[in-house]
Amino acid sequence: MSHDTHSAVRAPDPHPTRKKFGMTLIGPAVVLVAVIALALTGGSFFVQLATQVVLWWCFGLSYQLLFGRTGMLSFGHAVNFGLAAFVTAHTVRWLGSSWPVYELLPLVGAFVGLCCGVVLGFPVTRRSGVAFSMVTLGLGELVAACFLMFPAFFGGEAGVTLHRTDVRSLLGFDYGRGGAQLLFTAAWSCSVLATVHWLAGTPFGMATLAVRDNAQRAEFSGFCAANIRWVSYLVASTLAGVAGALSALAFEIVTVDSVSLHTSADVLLMTVIGGIGSTFGPLLGAIFLSVMNSVVSGWTRAWLFYYGFVFVTLVWLAPQGIAGLCVSAWQRRSMPRTIAASAATVLGFAVVLVVFIETAYQIFLGEASRLPGWHALGSTALLTIFWGSGLTVAVWLTRVVGRSGSKR
Amino acid sequence: MEVLASSLLNGLTYGFLLFMLASGLTLIFSLMGIMNFAHASIYMLGAYVGYALAKHLGFWVGALVAPALVGIMGCALERWFLRALHVRGHVVELLFTFGLALLIEEVVKLIWGAGPVDYNFPHALKGSLFELFGTPYPAYKGFMVLVTAAALAGLYALVTHTRVGLIVRASLTHPLMVENLGHDTDRVFMWVFGLGSALAGLAGVIGGAALTTEPSMATQLGTIIFVVVVIGGLGSIPGAFVASILVGLLQTLLIAVDLRLGEALIPMGLLAHGALAEVKISQLAPMAPYCLMVAVLLIRPRGLLGRRDA
């Protein structure tokens, strides 16, 4: 057994040639426009949802740069995001209506993110791989543990609130309306996308790929791997800072949750679920996370279970995430039957799993599930369904595990 | 003086508990390169399984059977899941175990509820062992130290003085050569993973009964365990021991200090201003392990006793 240093995290093709252009820019743009159009024609709930999607996408893009392109699995990326959000909130409160600089406020977040990258990024990027992950976890917890000590900055349990309409707009828009704020967020997120896309094509972007795939070889080619990791961390933390500022402005409240492991875990889960190989992945992940977070959580208490299950399954069976699945489905479009068969299998398994879990929650926690007609079922019927679906899930899982577990 | 003595004893007890988790984690890491994020979740499973068994069969049966059950779970996890992921690199394994930790927490919440459960030591361990400056030292803490010391001594003897330990140690450095000599290294890995999980399960039985058994116990202790492992140096078991004791002592000693930072700095000729001066030293206790980690990383990036290449 060899100790290979190759990361299994691999983009489909590192060269952003004209052929790849569609995947990296046009694809996200089309989905983004669709999301925004849906939101603007729908009610205010959809505007909120779309704002969340765009925000998480922006944050996910920075994470994709860090993890997908440089191979650094960070458990503390929310530190940059959260601190930028807090500083932006305090800036808005301090500015009041003095200067019309609303459109430039994300730059404050970017600056804070940059500072975080300089201060925190230097010690953590000396290490790579698993050690880097552990250190970022510790640093994230360190910052989150500070919140009890500095109630003036973190605002205690209640967090810091702000009114974004206090700051006058440079261009004269009224950001009190959710739609305008959504477009503002989307515009900044697109500039983040442009930055990430541009960086991918530069020699530096190529060097990050080299460091990700084989740091030792990159060192022999004359690169300082630690410094490339550091610069990559700097860019990622700056972009995360932009996302943090945007989130502070969009939600008008920042709580300590935004620097905590919880948010770090969310951005990690979401980016991996969407797919870390392309800029399209974080958008799909952001849609998934926001829908789970705002819609599914209202339906069922088991949403975190589904969230974790999808993540584990994707890491295990489809490491390129939803985006990777879409790509491979597109590549096999000449065999629609195979695709339909696998889609049907996945769908069937999902239905049985959902039935099993919902019944389990109803039996164990005494909470009526939202499955149609489920609350009317007697206890015998519930138990029958529970054992039946549980057995099906178990058999199904055993088959999959047996097939991929014996593969070496 | 008496505060200091009792804090020292408590710190040592806590440090031993930390080391029980950190030793399994380090053993697995140094052998397979897997940083098992779900290790603390396995600790939690140990506590809950022990609790479930204790309800029906009594504490002692639970304390014996729960680690074995959790160890078998660990073996299955390695055999059926992690082994297939191994070829795809360590970062993917880390990701997978991270997701697993999330899932285990949800499953525990589903089965045993989101609140803490009533898991305690039996009455035989409720009395005091001896008195120190008038404060009684509870018997269950003595039991904790005894069990951890016995388990770790057993582990040490197994690794250094038996044939199995010889194969394990050889697999650490020369897995291919061990395989060529006719040993099934995959099976060795599986058993080591199971052993580490069983240790975590035993720590869960003890820690769950001494502290609280609740679904957030994995995250609470988990991050500290990883910090301990980083401070000690990844893959170094002696380092993990030093770091566990250090972190255990630091945390309990800081909690015992009833001073504000401003007052504490005056004798040193330093002055703190504003918000910083108002911070209580005991509030610093949760941050202490992380601060220690940053300090160690800045001075000695490979950890206290770590090797350079780990």
Report what the structure shows.
The complex is a heterodimer of chains A (408) and B (310). With 408 residues, chain A is an all-alpha fold. Chain A has two domains: 18-300, ABC transporter involved in vitamin B12 uptake, BtuC (Orthogonal Bundle), CATH 1.10.3470; 336-405. Helices cover 72% and strands 1% of the residues of chain A. The longest helix of chain A is centred in the C-terminal third of the chain and has 30 residues, at 336-365. The termini of chain A are close together. Chain B is built from 13 helices and two strands, in the order ααααββααααααααα. In chain B, α2 (39-57) runs antiparallel to α3, α2 (39-57) runs parallel beside α4 (90-112) and α2 crosses α8 (185-210). The longest helix of chain B has 31 residues, at 2-32. Chains A and B meet through α5, α11, α13, α15 and α16 of A and α3, α4, α7, α9 and α13 of B.
As residue ranges, the low-confidence spans of chain B are: none
Mean pLDDT of chain B equals: 84
The span between the termini of chain A is 11 Å
**Which fold does the CATH topology of chain B refer to?**
ABC transporter involved in vitamin B12 uptake, BtuC
Oligomer: heterodimer
CATH class of chain B: Mainly Alpha
Distance separating the two termini of chain B: 41 Å
Shape of chain B: globular
Question: What would the CATH topology of the largest domain in chain A be?
Answer: ABC transporter involved in vitamin B12 uptake, BtuC
Biggest β-sheet strands, sense, barrel of chain B: 2 strands, antiparallel
Brief sketch in words of this structure:
The complex is a heterodimer of chains A (408) and B (310). With 408 residues, chain A is mostly helical.
